Amino acid sequence: MPEHLIRLRGGWKLHDLDAEASNATPLTLPVAWESRPVPRRLRLVRKFGRPKIGRARLVLEAVEGLRAMTLNDDSLAVDAAPPGRLDVDLPPLGERNVLVLDVVIESASDEPASPWGNIALAISE
Question: Quick check: pTM over 0.90?
Answer without folding.
Answer: no
